[in-house]
Amino acid sequence: MKSKRDEVIGGSILFLFGGITAILSLRMPIGDFRAAGTGMFPLILGVLLMVLSGLFVAQRLRDRTVTGAEKKEAETPVSVKQLLMFLGVTMAAVAGFTTMGFPLMSFLLMLLLLRSLGIKGWAFLLSVSLLTAASSYALFVYLLKIPLPKGLVGI
Amino acid sequence: MLESLQLLFEGFAVATTAVNLSYCLIGAIVGTLVGILPGLGPIAGIALLVPVTFGLNPTTALIMLAGIYYGSMYGGSTTSILLNVPGETASVITCIDGYQMAQRGKAGAALALCAIGSFIAGTLAIMGLVFLAPPLAEAALAFGPAEYFSLMVCGFVVLSNVTGTSLLKSLMMAIVGLIIGTVGLDPVTGDARFAFDTAYLLGGIEFVAVAIGLFGIGEILSNVERPQELLRQQVIVPRLKDLYPTLLDLKRSIGAILRGAGIGFGVGLVPGPAPVIATYASYLVEKRTSRHPEEFGKGAVEGVAGPEAANNAACQAAFIPLFVLGIPFAPPTAILLGALLIHGVMPGPMMISERPEVFWGVVASMYIGNFILLLLNLPFVPLFANILRIPKRVLLPLVMLFCITGMYTVNNSIPDIWVMLLFGVIGYTMRKWAYEGAPLLLALVLGPKLEVAFRQALMISHGDFGVFFERPISLTFLVATSLFLFFPLLRGAIRKWRAQQAPR
Question: What pLDDT digit, counting tens, does each position of B323-356 carry?
């Protein structure tokens, strides 16, 4: 079981999602049960999600018990900085995928992700990144004949 | 029965062509690796390899993808025994006694028992599939839209009931999956829905992106945030000559393997993460029926052989609802359904008669695949154990690169990668907040089918909801649904009442 605050936030997000779905569905033809329109099914789902998530949030707000899970979770060391760096590097690589091309993107992605996870020693970093980029290029482009963006490198 | 055997022999003719044998071998090897590598389970593994099958014929494609699924069950036990870290969820229970056996110098014997148990159980389950699928397919011809709708609703509720810690949370995830499944074109009228005037969303949300995002990227991100998880772990590498269990070990295991096969096959036929449930059920049965219950938790051979046999049998049995009804009961088979549809094969009651080469070819390949896996998993265990020595800090970027490239190759589309990353972040958050991804993914794949069945049933009955209750098969599924829905509530209420009544 997660902390009460997390549970309430999670439930509220789902309630909001259900609400938005229901509102957007109402803009589409609803029809009747004999000939359901485009919006009928998502409308039912949106309302159902609102009901269930509302029930869930109410349940959690009423629940006064405190579990040890939250305390244990707090004891687990978490590196948010490492996570954000890893995600940031990945997003930058995807954004530059077409421009850079697959070989360069895969090399830089490996290099920076390995670095973001704390691997030091440039010789190791460069050799692993180069080896990965070359072998993945051989696998996808030569062996599987999958057309990948060529980009700046042009291969 | 004789007809089934004859058709199975014809299936062997299909499965033993050089191309199909090669892809069966590739599937088995990739599956073993997927099972071994923590962070890459069968769902993400199969989803990643779907694009690779685009140039293949449907039978060959399914032979490879199915091989990955059941191969991962073999591989999953390796990390459980050597590292005390399950390669995938169906191998969690193997950690208990498998790692203890490894600590006592019996790692090789434990791995061999897993491989032998998986082989026997897998082979028995395929025999069940051969003889049970054709009559079930005939029975399924009586299914109309109402029956299909009720069956799918029942499937969602059962799956929600057995996954995660909260029924309500899992049900909400199933509904979110159904909502995401409505994005794109209305399957009945063809009108645009939630597309926001973009061409990309008209095609709907790519289920492969959701699968890799939730189960692949989500897992990678969860690992990245835990620095201590990235440290190099001690791996016990068994020697080849130690890979033979003693006669006593084999004698003690055989009963557990056969019971595990039966349990796994039964559980595989019902909705839910069958391999996971089957391992727990088998472990409990073995512990209760054992003459040495005190050995459980300290390296009991039955505690390894039984659950490993069960997860393999469950995995093979899960193909029955997929092939016969066209309805997957678990996320890995949902991905396989998606792959079948991409290849133009419509699974369902007519599949066996309309596409016999696909059905019997795949079934026959499972026999061959099991044999390949037995051969692979015994002599190559030391090699696989060495793969585990690769530090996670190197492995995680590799898997990320493979996810990005694999996702791009599905439609040659960058937006698909963004969708995958978005669902990766959602998957990571869901893990943190203890929401299950399985109901969401299954609902996303089955959503359009469910909607069509719902609307067709109501169209036929002129808007009368009685159609779902008047037809006996549909009513049976709905009764089962309400039992699964209300039983946990009732149980919770009784527990609360008992706690209040108990003397303080």
Answer: 888 888 878 888 888 888 888 888 888 888 888 8
- Which chain A residues are closer than 8 Å to B435 by Cβ? 10
Could you tell me if B94 and B278 are in contact, meaning their C-beta atoms sit under 8 angstroms apart? no
> What value does the CA radius of gyration of chain B take, rounded to a whole number of Å?
22
Return the residue in A113, A144, A150 with the most chain B beta carbons within 10 A, the one to mutate for interface testing. Answer: A113
Q: Which residues pair with B192 in a beta bridge?
A: B185
Tens-place pLDDT, residues B423-436: 999 999 998 998 98
pTM (2 d.p.): 0.84
User: By the 8 A CB rule, do B264 and B314 touch?
Assistant: yes
Average pLDDT over residues B84-91: 71
Chain A nearest CA to B394, separation (Å): 6
A-chain residue closest to B227, CA distance? A79
Residue A86 is which amino acid? F
Residue B447's nearest CA partner among B188, B177, B189 is B177
User: Is B393 close to A128, i.e. CB distance below 8 A?
Assistant: no
Residue with tokens 């989500």: B218
Tell me the C-alpha distance between B293 and B305, whole Å.
Answer: 15
Task: Please indicate if any CB of chain A lies within 8 Å of the CB of B405.
Answer: yes
Q: Does B157 touch chain A (CB under 8 A)?
A: no
Listed range (A127-131, A146-150, B97-101, B233-237) with the worst mean pLDDT:
B233-237
Average pLDDT, stretch B102-123?
Answer: 85
CA distances, B415 to each of A91, B192, B200, B206 (Å) = 12, 19, 8, 10
CA distance A34 to chain B (A): 4
Residue A113 tokens, joined: 């992700």
